[in-house]
Specification:
Number of strands: 59
CATH architecture of the largest domain: 3 Solenoid
CATH topology of the largest domain: Pectate Lyase C-like
CATH superfamily of the largest domain: Single-stranded right-handed beta-helix, Pectin lyase-like
Distance between the termini: 89 Å
Largest sheet: 12 strands, parallel
Strand content: 25-35%
Length: 722
């Protein structure tokens, strides 16, 4: 059976006399990819001494070169030293034959594998300094490439270039056979470049196909080495999405080497990070195309790791790349900052910051390749733990679908992260993070890895994320917040059932085409006659003064939010501390906590005043009523100004002698407990058997059958009240 094609035939038209006989085979032919590449973009020139100056060429966002077309003039199309075509391997078509030939060639040799040949790789191939391993003729079609295929016992790598300078892998198909043999925890990265030796440099992988790793990555360039290049490669598929098997995902390219180049590659159906940048100081990542076709991809380009370089991304440039949704789901296109990925207790942390990267002119687009457009959770996501960061001139195509199920996140006391969208960042002064384009929406951003595909039964919208025209809605899995054509704001399901209504029908006459429902940075949920109007038509938050919540500006460290849910309460307008300004119903399930100064506000029976339930810093839970109409000043000032408030009810424990932190905790056992000063000061004793165990905590306006505070069991029977 022929394992390769005849390399070439003699030119019968030539009149040149034949060369003298030689024991060596002839040199390899000119490769099929040697057509002139597109010219590189011109460099900006100094101003000319004329009255008319032409600006330098500016390429639109996205990859400048299509996959496989990045110019590589430094790569020779002929061997520069000793060379051999391994057409008659002594040890069969195996890694042993390849290794023996490489060892025989020695440093600087080039080993060509015959076109279309297939090799069984049972142990890692080790290259020597300045060696090249390639398919003869440098073909770019898969069918013509020499194939290095892993056997079941091949561990940990297929090709190992650890701490070896000058190596080159070119025009090879390298297959880890995950689809045949499955995952193997004893395997490592398929192609290992880099290494800790600072004297190691100049490694290059060009125009290879690398796919089906049995562990974490197809290709990795480790830290320590300089000038590692991976160009024009086709990477993937890699791993299994977390929606299928937890923990079996894999990277396309993992890159930590400094002053390197990742360019012209196409990464398809990776499942962890398509390209993961581990600082890689001084590296250029450009003109790569990332395609999510049939799998769940956690990150397109990840810039989230603080190790191994202590977050130093100085002169690392991620520019002019294209990320395509083509039927699959991407959690985050370009995640930037450690807690944009995952966040544990106490994070973000000031001693774990990523610094000084440049992310510019990247494009998120969609492409239907027979599986629909696909979707994405977050486009460009920048978390609070970056400094000196630049993220500008990036583009998300308007047709890209942003969605994601937030229901599985362990969000912690800070609450859920902001809803999916193209440009999101952590709240706070933008200058603290760096230089970001104006499209970024601030909010609580952490642990986005928890998001999964599909409509979500719960969303948290921050200012600039809610802007609805009449007839538009925010869709959950089953329910939706809808701004009706008549001006009413309702929570409705697909069958038309109404769970809550603001009762505003008929209030936007004359503004039906221009009105907008908006959540402002100062906490107001209001209807404007037209976008950016300085005066609202009406507000759904009459308890707030016109200036809203003190300190809540677009640059504030924390912001108000609107939380929507398929379960009750369907709608809650929250203060930055988690207090409730407006709710479709005033009840919460167990495992809910209310720290000091976290108010729950609702209108009184006659809607002439505002009731506020709040834990005071002296360790008493109180139900207060405003004395001067509905408008209240939040946060409440302590000691309580009795000229502003009535005390309608309070817990019977004695006040503490001084201000202290505390929490009212509605626990998972059904007990409502007031903790302060390290002690339990008061409780309702509503734990025990199901008929006694509380399941819901409810606030009322004091009217008939609506006590100021009550606890009910699963059957909605009252087990305690004020």
């Amino acid at each position: 059976m022929h394992r390769f094609r005849a390399p070439w035939s003699k030119d019968k038209q030539s009149s040149t006399p034949p060369p003298p006989p030689s024991n060596k085979p002839p040199p390899p032919p000119i490769p099929s990819h040697s057509r002139p590449p597109p010219p590189p973009p011109p460099r900006p020139q100094p101003p000319l001494p004329t009255t008319t100056i032409s600006p330098p060429t500016a390429h639109p966002p996205g990859a400048i070169y299509p996959p496989g077309k990045w110019p590589t003039p430094e790569l020779s199309i002929y061997p520069l030293n000793t060379w051999l075509i391994l057409s008659s391997p002594d040890k069969g078509w195996t890694s042993a034959s390849i290794q023996a030939a490489l060892d025989a060639l020695g440093e600087g040799g080039t080993l060509y594998l015959p076109r279309s040949s297939k090799w069984d790789i049972s142990e890692p191939i080790l290259l020597r300094p300045w060696q090249e391993l390639a398919t003869e003729g440098y073909p770019t079609e898969e069918k013509d490439m020499a194939a290095l295929e892993a056997t079941p016992g091949c561990r940990p790598h297929l090709v190992n270039c650890w701490n070896v300078s000058g190596v080159r892998l070119r025009n090879l198909l390298i297959d880890g056979k995950h689809d045949v043999f499955g995952r193997d925890d004893k395997c490592g990265v398929m192609v290992q470049f880099g290494g800790p030796d600072p004297a190691c440099h100049d490694q290059w992988c060009d125009r290879c196909i690398i796919r089906n790793p049995r562990q974490w990555s197809c290709f990795q360039a480790f830290e320590g080495t300089t000038n590692v290049r991976i160009t024009n490669c086709r990477i993937g598929p890699a791993g299994i999405g977390k929606d299928i098997i937890e923990g079996h995902w894999a990277d396309g390219i993992s890159f930590a080497a400094s002053h390197g180049l990742v360019a012209g590659n196409e990464i398809t159906d990776a499942t962890d990070g398509a390209i993961v940048v581990f600082q890689a100081t001084g590296t250029l990542v450009t003109s790569n195309t990332i395609v999510c076709y049939s799998r769940l991809l956690l990150g397109g380009i990840n810039m989230v790791d603080h190790a191994p370089g202590k977050g130093d991304y100085s002169h690392t440039r991620v520019v002019h790349n294209t990320i395509l949704t083509a039927g699959g789901y991407i959690v985050t296109a370009i995640a930037q900052g450690p807690t944009a990925w995952g966040a544990g207790p106490g994070e973000p942390s000031e001693d774990k910051l990523n610094r000084n990267a440049i992310v510019a002119r990247n494009l998120i687009h969609y492409q239907d390749r027979g599986r629909g457009k696909g979707a994405i959770g977050y486009g460009f996501a920048v978390s609070a733990d970056v400094r000196g960061w630049t993220c500008v001139e990036n583009v998300s195509d308007p047709g890209v679908v942003y969605s994601g199920d937030m229901s599985d996140g362990d969000w912690g006391l800070g609450g859920m992260s902001l809803a999916p969208g193209p440009f999101v960042r952590s709240a706070g002064p933008v200058e603290k993070l760096g230089v970001l384009q104006e499209e970024f929406v601030p909010g609580l951003l952490r642990g986005l890895l928890a998001v999964k595909p599909g409509r979500s039964p719960v969303l948290r919208l921050f200012p600039r994320q809610l802007s609805l025209r009449p007839g538009e809605k925010v869709q959950l899995k089953h329910w939706a917040l809808e701004f009706r054509l008549d001006g009413d704001v309702q929570v409705r399901n697909e069958g038309g059932e109404i769970a809550w209504s603001a009762g505003l029908g008929g209030t936007i006459k004359g503004h039906e085409k221009t009105a907008v429902l908006e959540l402002s940075a100062n906490g107001h949920l209001w209807i404007l006659p037209f976008p950016a109007s300085p005066t609202p038509l009406l507000t759904l938050t009459p308890l707030l003064p016109d200036t809203g919540l003190p300190g809540c500006t677009p640059q504030a460290e924390s912001l108000p939010s609107l939380q929507l849910s398929d379960t009750t309460p369907h709608l809650q307008l929250l203060t930055p501390s988690g207090g409730i300004l407006l709710s479709s119903c005033y009840e919460v399930p167990w495992n809910t906590q209310f720290p000091v100064d976290t108010p729950v506000c609702q209108p009184s029976v006659n809607a002439e005043s505002t009731l506020v339930a709040v834990l005071s810093p002296l360790g008493q839970y109180m139900i207060l009523s405003s004395r001067r109409g509905r408008v209240v000043e939040l946060p409440i000032k302590w000691p309580l100004e009795m000229g502003r408030w009535y005390i309608l009810w309070q817990t019977r424990n004695a006040p503490l002698p001084q201000f202290t932190e505390g929490t009212l905790a509605f626990q998972g056992d059904g007990n409502l407990v007031l903790y302060a000063g390290g002690k339990a000061l008061w409780n309702t004793a509503t734990y025990g058997p199901p008929e006694k165990q509380a399941r819901w905590m409810k606030w009322g306006d004091g009217g008939a059958g609506r006590p100021y505070l009550e606890l009910v069991n699963e059957a909605r029977e009252r087990v305690w009240s004020t």
